[in-house]
Amino acid sequence: MFATYLIGLREGLEATLVVSILVAFLVKSQRRDRLPQVWAGVGLAVALSVGFGSLIQCTSTSLLRTSESRELFEAVTSVAAVVFVTWMIFWMRRAARTIAGELRGKLTDALAVGSLAVAGMAFLAVIREGLETALIFYAAAESAAGGTGPGSLLALAGGIATAVVIGFLLYRSAVRINLSRFFTWTGALLILVAAGILKYGVHDFQEAGVLPGLNDLAFDISATFDPSSWYGALLAGMFNITAAPTVLELVAWVAYAVPVLVLFLRKPAQPAQPAKPARPAEPVPAAAPAADTSDAPADVAAVPSPRA
């Protein structure tokens, strides 16, 4: 449940921040007349995202007849979700400092074109987050014990609702949170969630007969690790940590989680500052030459010394 809540919170806050930037820019620019176009684009993006999630669920439960085809479909969606999670996390870390300026620039261009351009700008800004949320939610919910049931949907809705509240309070400047730290912590947790999704996808590939080793267990700690306990359910639901994984599942989990976490938590290298050129030494003025009286006027050169 917490994994789907975290997905809703993270993706929802990204979309909320994008919308709040667009709305704030229009309000400060005295272009409130364009706000209906922004909300129309946002509404269309949300509707299509919900439709995309329903299509994925319908494909898995109704359109696919055999268990092997369903396992293969879930495996493919799991791998795709891991790719989207990884790309989204690193993209947000790189673009966090410039996203506001880029959105304002694009919205300025859209305002010059017309109403449809403004609606399209808001639609494109939100639809990416919505499609990612639908795909990642399906993969994460399927990898957990509860599946895409009412509990998972409520957890996702709760995360999105929390993100909307935080975004509104940020817009109103009622709260101040360190967004960089927030996205770092949630990004690290989502990497572990993605590792669990990848492990689930490998298991589905094994059940579909695409990958071997379904019965080759890496270890079995069922005697000491109770999957029905609160901690067992928490670890399985969040990170898909189970008591008896196969060798390929364990390899996939570790091979993804360790290097991606290291790359994500490593501080980005600061661009090297160009060295300032050395200041040239000031030239030392040359000594004044001795006075030459050879060309002096006669009346001056012939002046006799005064007598004592």
Question: Which key terms come to mind for this protein?
Answer:
308 residues, mainly alpha, 10 helices
How would you explain this protein's 3D organization?
This protein is mainly alpha-helical. It has helices at residues 2-28, 35-63, 67-95, 99-113, 115-143, 150-171, 179-207, 230-239, 247-265, 298-301. The relative contact order is 0.14. The model is unreliable at 290-308 (pLDDT under 50).
Secondary structure: elements and pairs:
Elements: H1 2-28, H2 35-63, H3 67-95, H4 99-113, H5 115-143, H6 150-171, H7 179-207, H8 230-239, H9 247-265, H10 298-301
Helix pairs in contact: 1-4, 1-5, 1-6, 1-7, 2-5, 3-5, 3-7, 4-5, 7-9
Describe what is shown at a glance.
The chain has 308 residues and is mostly helical. It has helices spanning 2-28, 35-63, 67-95, 99-113, 115-143, 150-171, 179-207, 230-239, 247-265, 298-301.
Query: What is the share of helical residues?
Result: 55-70%
Span from first to last CA?
Answer: 117 Å
Radius of gyration: 33 Å
Number of helices, counting only DSSP H or I runs of 4 residues or more:
10
Give helix and strand order, one letter per element, not per position.
HHHHHHHHHH
Anisotropy-based shape: elongated
Number of strands: 0
Unreliable stretches: 290-308
Q: Provide the residue-averaged pLDDT.
A: 78
Helix/strand/pairing category:
mainly alpha
**Percent of sequence in beta strands:** under 5%
Largest sheet: none
